[in-house]
Amino acid sequence: MEEEFHDKIIIKNLLVRNVTGVDSWERVKRQPVLINLILHKNISEAGEKDKLSYSINYGIVSKAVSKFAEDSVSDSIEALAEGIAKICVNECHVPRVVVRVEKPRALLHAASAGVEIIRTREDYSLNDSNSNTLPIYNNNRQDVIFVKDLRLSAIIGVNPWEREEKQTVILNITIYSDFNISSSQEGNVPKPHNYRTIVRTISKYVEESTYQTVEAFATTAAKIAITQCQVNKVTIRVEKPSALVFAESAGIEITRSQSYLADEIRHISQPYLNPLNGKGFGNTRSTIPERAEAIKTALPKGYNHFAFIGLGSNMGDCFKNINEALQQLETICKCKVLDTSFLYETSPMYVTDQPNFLNAACKIATNLKPDELIKELWAVELNLGRSRENTVRNGPRTIDLDILFYDDIDCSTNTLVIPHPSMCEREFVLRPLCDIAKRFEHPKLYKTCEQLLSQHLKSPNYDKNNIVRKVLPIQNSKWIWNSKTYIMGVINVTPDSFSDGGQFYSVESAVSHAEKLVAEGADILDIGGMSTKPNADEIPVEEELARVIPVIQAIRSKGMTDIPISIDTYRAAVAEKAIAAGANLINDVSGGHLDPDMYRIMAKTNIPICLQHMRGNSKTMLKLTQYEDIITDICSELFERVERAIEAGVKRWNIIIDPGIGFAKDYQQNFQILKRLHELTGENSPFEGFPCLVGPSRKGFIGEATKQPDAKKRGWGSAAACSASIAGGADVLRVHDVKEMVDVAKVSDRIW
């Protein structure tokens, strides 16, 4: 019976020149493509009668396939394979065909990459043969994506000499993915798991790791493909060419699936960047699917699309314009803002005779289609005083809103091009995008935002004099991160603080001290009304308010209107009233976890916040100093609080992090934090991009190291700790001795 498809007609390694996606250097140009076909046809009658008319003429098939491949331009290798299958089935009347399309120049470090699909006459029977739609079928066949002979370098082996030098390891990867769709989408090929993304992700992890066995190497590669790239099923073959003297190679092959790793997927800590992105930094306790599902349930019904929006302003109050635009995205545009980037001051491009811009990016969820969304964005621009008809192209504007990405679509109309066509030449777009979508892949260029930025910075056309600097508007000033270390002067309006308790307990003494600190060079004042030293007693909210509110009001009434004021509290009610009295920053030693209403107040007031790492409270924190790894555990616990703040609506640019020296840390752990602070603040660290505050001033670990019981006499030790903090990447120092630490910071800044 013909349906059994036992007989095969084979066309092997048909070479064509075709434009399919990009080449190994990610350029859109003609590339060699190898096509292998297996045509299933009962050839019994042709064999008996010796007549070709009872079979399939492979010459005709090869000519038809070659013409189609040479003449067509495909966005993906999957689209090319699907087109070839349709030619075989619909035009050459092949009952069943296996199409294997292979690109020898697909990847720099692999022999080739490609796909293999199986199609039958029945797959297309429900479709118009002239239609561009994809087949509809309900069978269990799986199409596969493959990468052949990916060559990586890694430390691998149990012998001592194998631990000294990297050796070549060859990977063959087969991804089983049903990328056909159950209902046709005209003109689209459903996007499979991108082999570039998978290879990039696996390569990064395995080349930075050291393994003793190929078993561990292969298992890790499979886990990465499944847990990080969301592959359903994968086969990994690993070979060591240098393993045996008298053999070409030795290795193993394993197959793993999501069901096989179900328990691990549920419990594994995965990198997380922002809601529903599932890519990026930090380690969290819950998994990406759990987070995504939690956020989805909080979104309005139908908000199933996600977009990245670029924001810019250089007229009027730029900071206010951007904040109002974000607010109107939610109130007018039927969008939910999921995350925001940091803020950047940037020099103008194209038309340079105009003021600098303030730029940012945000991620939104929406139920609007792209053409609907852009019209709503134009309406917001109009509301904020910008008319596109009356605005000079690339000239000054109160607000500029652009769709950078919308889901992963690639589209072009008379009014809209997605992805944004000019983003790759604009650092003021790529920098904010990398804050919230560092590993999001451009659907047309097949590069991540991080790669696009790196490529732009290395371009011969890149202007090194171009200004792109991270900023924080606060009170009547603008902090420029990485330009200097900012000094936060401490004013404890308490009778029992460990260093200066009772010294500034009255309003008059506190205001006098504030004037002194400002004169000595403080950039911000930190006012606290309740001691958080170990074993400190908690006081009523009313008493804390009675201590801090009069001081804040008195400082402002004294004419100190430009100096920012921080309120040091973990209580939402105190923070809210302090802000109403004139405070500009919430400094929460608990990172928001001691008051369930704090994140809401932080989002509502829309001012800078400092989230500190802490366990327990003042009474219990010294009993909670057990860590597997002090930095890893701080990262995990503190980043969870950062996430909660962002999910509550706090802008990323308003967040400062603090590792919490002295809070649930013992003597050695405090020094470990200073020694390894760069692991929190450096490039590719969990908190890359977030400003960091460190507060070692006069604390007990300094007294223990210097054998100085009097906290007021720990100035030299504090200076050393502050200098070490700056070396580790601190942006703000919370100190008691402002005059001395300003000098420490000035010298340290020149070094580091």
UniProtKB/TrEMBL annotation:
Source species of the chain: Cetraspora pellucida
Protein known as: 13796_t:CDS:1
